[in-house]
Design brief:
The protein is mainly α. It has one domain. The protein contains 12 helices and 2 strands, in the order H-H-H-H-H-H-H-H-E-E-H-H-H-H. Helix 2 runs parallel beside helix 11. The two termini are 23 Å apart.
């Protein structure tokens, strides 16, 4: 998150709050930080996928300066002035708002069982879950998941292309950058051209940025403190996480469908 692993507050503001608001980023980041305490060499395995490393490192430094000066303080104020249950409710609400895009990507990937779960979660949480602030669907055994168009492109056969880091947008790849544009077009709120819809988009953008950054305060700080190369650690974390997301939990990545529609990405790796 989708939206979607690094602090995405400004990205969300620029794209009307399209984000992966309810993913396990904080848990994954915390686990990864623990691994880095014991073995930092794993962060070097992604170097071959980063031909633009010089540029990316400069952009990474710019991002960290903005993050430390603006995003982290805002996230700390948000934490200090809200209750844990309120923050959880907001994340649930934002995740529920992303359901239409997740459903479209489920269908585009041919994941019809997961599409049924997505539709069921939306109906249940929107009705008896107070518009999505609660998650009764989870308690009913309907698991949540997140999909984005970058994952859909991967399932269709698109290669990731070079790793790319853009300040405030965070880590990505050429393929996932194109995917972000697709996700924006799947957001129904983007197509409503009224003042009320505009204010809603801006409000949702700010809320989503805070909701995503707040649980990552300690995990990201832990990674920075315990890694020999913070940039390489984030790069490795991103690539590993994206691979797991695209595989939808499969341990054998070879069984993913490959339509082969994007061979031109091969030349960029």
């Amino acid at each position: 998150m989708t939206i979607k692993i690094w602090p995405l507050a400004a990205l969300l503001a620029l794209t009307a709050g399209v984000a992966h608001a309810q993913r396990s980023d904080a848990d994954d980041a915390a686990a990864f930080a623990e691994e880095l305490k014991n073995d930092d060499t794993s962060t070097q395995d992604s170097a071959s996928k980063d031909p633009w490393e010089g540029f990316n490192r400069k952009m990474f430094a710019v991002h960290n300066a903005i993050d430390g000066a603006m995003l982290v303080p805002a996230a700390k104020v948000y934490r200090a002035t809200t209750h844990k249950k309120q923050r959880k409710g907001l994340r649930n609400l934002l995740a529920n708002a992303r359901t239409p895009a997740i459903l479209i990507n489920d269908l585009l990937q041919g994941e019809f069982k997961r599409a049924g779960e997505t539709a069921s979660r939306f109906v249940v949480n929107t009705t008896i879950g107070f518009g999505g602030m609660g998650d009764p669907a989870e308690r009913m055994g309907i698991p949540q998941h997140s999909e984005d168009f970058g994952q859909t492109l991967a399932v269709w056969g698109a290669r990731p292309g070079p790793y790319l880091f853009v300040p405030l947008f965070g880590p990505s790849s050429l393929r996932d950058g194109f995917g972000s544009v697709g996700d924006i077009t799947m957001d129904p709120a983007v197509w409503i051209r009224t003042d009320a819809a505009k204010y809603l988009r801006y409000s949702r953008a700010g809320a989503t940025g805070l909701a995503l950054r707040e649980p990552l305060i300690e995990p990201l700080q832990d990674i920075e403190d315990n890694s020999l190369d913070y940039y390489a650690s984030i790069r490795s974390f991103y690539m590993q996480s994206r691979k797991r997301e695209i595989a939808n939990g499969r341990t054998n990545y070879d069984d993913l469908p490959d339509i082969g529609a994007f061979e031109e990405f091969d030349e960029l790796e």
